[in-house]
Amino acid sequence: MKNTYDTYADEYVNLLDEDREKKFSLYHSFIVPTFLYIVGEVRGLRILDAGCGEGSISRILSEKGGIIVGIDIAPRLIDYARNRDVSHKTKYMVYDLSTPLPEYENRFDLVVSNLVLDDVPDYIGFISTISVLLKLGGRAVFSLNNPYSAVIRGKVNNYFNSETSILYNGLSSRGVKVYYFHRTLETYMREFHNNGFRLETLSDVRPTDEMINELDPERYGRFYHFPFFMMMAFRKT
Fold first, then answer.
1. Which residues, other chains included, contact 101 with Cβ-Cβ below 8 Å and sequence gap of 6+?
2. Which residues contact 215 (CB under 8 A, 6 or more apart)?
3. How far apart are CA 185 and CA 61, in angstroms?
4. Could you give all domains of the chain from N- to C-terminal order, each with its CATH number?
5. Rounded distance, CA 163 to CA 136, Å?
6. Are the CB atoms for 77 and 10 separated by under 8 Å?
7. Angle formed by the axes of helices 123-133 and 185-194, to 10°?
8. Ramachandran region of residue 154, left (φ > 0), alpha (ψ -120 to 50) or beta?
């Protein structure tokens, strides 16, 4: 995904910024608060934001007292993250987390990865690296597009056909083609298990009535009935 997000970094960040200005937004009013609730208390923890993008999650966790390293494969997104980090407390770096990073082995108490896992072509290498960087007993929290939603929305006609590329709607409306990968839930769970992770939380997140009414009942009411996103929290054992 490096070239795509690097090429369209401005469009991607502008989309997030415009969404942030809304009273209610699917991302900032629903996905992020749910993700942070599952992440929990972070004060004093050494945290890796894996696929940090322009750094919004890193900034929130830093304000909550976490000690953050934000890593992303897209250099221009890391530039945004550094420029927006007015506290200068977070270390940002460009790196492909699908490959080993020996200098950070067993360094982190917590790894967070918000809407990244299904963007990564080499998810096996990504999960393996995260396991190595995480301390024994540490937690890893992920959010992603719920694999079942691809079938519900008609994005794939065979749930078991992993590695199907699906177009992101948000950016496609701006003429930007960014894709994520459909994989089965079993595919992910098997790889986490193989890397020493024990599942602690699995949530098919659901918005409140207020969120749906404020967003757009006609457009987003379906989010109330079907699991479009998923949150997972693991413990390294």
1. 71, 95, 129, 132, 133
2. 24, 25, 26, 29, 207
3. 28
4. 2-142+184-236 (3.40.50.150)
5. 30
6. no
7. 40
8. left
Long-range CB contacts (within 8 A, 24+) of 157-163: 159/184, 160/184, 162/187
User: pTM, whole model, 2 decimals?
Assistant: 0.91
Per residue in 43-54, pLDDT tens?
Answer: 999 999 999 999
Higher pLDDT: 167 or 186? It is: 186
Place of tokens 């009013």: 29
Question: What's the DSSP call for residue 31?
Answer: I
Q: Are 79 and 56 in contact (CB under 8 A)?
A: no
Both tokens assigned to 163:
């590695």
Measured distance CA(39)–CA(33) in Å, rounded: 10
| Bridge partner list, 144 | 230
Strand ranges for 95-209 from DSSP E? 108-114, 134-145, 164-167, 179-182, 197-203
